[in-house]
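User: I'm putting together a small comparison set for a docking exercise, and I want a reference complex before I start. The sequence is below, and the ligand is adenosine-5-diphosphoribose. Could you produce the 3D structure with the ligand included, as structure tokens?
Assistant: Of course. I'll restate your input first, then give the structure tokens for the complex.
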Amino acid sequence: MRTQVGIVGAGPAGLLLSHLLHLEGIESIVVETHTRRHVEERIRAGVLEQGTVDLLNQSGVGGRMRREGLIHHGIELRFNRRGHRIDLFELTGGRAITVYGQHEVVKDLIDARLQADGQILFSVDQVSVHGFDGKSPSIRLRSAGEPLEIVCDFIGGCDGFHGVCRPSIPADALRNYEKVYPFGWLGILAEARPASEELVYSNHERGFALLSMRSPVLSRVYLQCRPDEELEEWPDDRIWEELQLRFQTDEGFRLNEGRVVQKGVTAMRSFVAEPMQYGRLYLAGDAAHIVPPTGAKGLNLAAADVRILSRAMANWYRNRDGGLLERYSQLCLRRVWRAQHFSWWMTSMMHRPDGGSEFDHRRQLAELDNVTTSRAAATNLAENYAGLPFEVI
Ligand code: APR
Ligand code: PHB
């Protein structure tokens, strides 16, 4: 098979890249190891920055998001048993976030690709990438038991943190930066009306907790745990009991409880591979960088990467101008590192440190006090949380 761009991975990065390339008149084939059902039902992130929302709308895949997404103008930071609202909208001159599950974005993108006769090969295996140090890269795989080779001009490495693309780059050509945190998040999806209209980030002596949502009747709630926490140790009753403690306020706040329909533990890390390119293989999204979820940046960074990559490729096909492609990594990394800093900062302000001392907790409370009383500090948080406009980075 032959196409212009071979894309490994049908997550948000790979699918959005394929969609944006299509709008530029560039053909691509996406290959994915999991089934369509798996990628459409996998519960992941859920907060879209204004820029990501604008990109989805401008590229014609925002219809359902506009109808079903929940627009939030603020978030709450809770500590010392009190809530403090950060007014994102007012502090950023009118930017908001949209709560809309990553798997919903994935469904919308798959629909758009298939409607435009785009090719996505699901359930493939033995994927490997070749020849990207020359002019004719290829992706080899097995599909329905048959070997297949896709020859292309470029490869989009959009196969997530555990994919094959990044490890296929010679080790001495990449530099990895990594920080692993000594905690994880235990997340649940519950059939319960969210007890707050906006997201609540709570710093509590027992550990961090976050109240988010997927709809007016579905709560998505997380609590800080060990990175290797055993789910068996957390029957639903224990989860709710712990969550109620961590969200307590002097005014008697209670979460609404309901049937837990999904439960999982995520370890937390910060990771960047530089550069995000080798020859004709371009890494995008989680394949190139991971952020801890506290800043809600992962999906948004993936979208920002492929926005630049699709433009750079369009410039190459249209004008044979490789300038933007050459600068791809450099252009992405500025936003990536900005998000790395913000995500690390939010994480260290909100979580109980491993074997945390009373000093650390007091320091966090002082920082939270600053962020919720100084307009300058709150504006900094709001700008980063709502996301920097694409023109800025
Ligand atoms: N061959 C083909 N596909 C692969 C391979 C492989 N060898 N390895 C992994 N994949 C697929 C995965 O099954 C997954 O569907 O690549 C896809 C990568 O998707 P994501 O992990 O969702 O990564 P990305 O598209 O970069 O999106 C980043 O995902 O983890 C969240 O918070 C993160 O929201 C962010 C988003
Ligand atoms: C989510 O809804 O899954 C979510 C929200 C905010 C975060 C992380 C995850 O910071």
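The mean pLDDT is 97. The longest helix spans residues 323-350.
User: Thanks, that's exactly what I needed.
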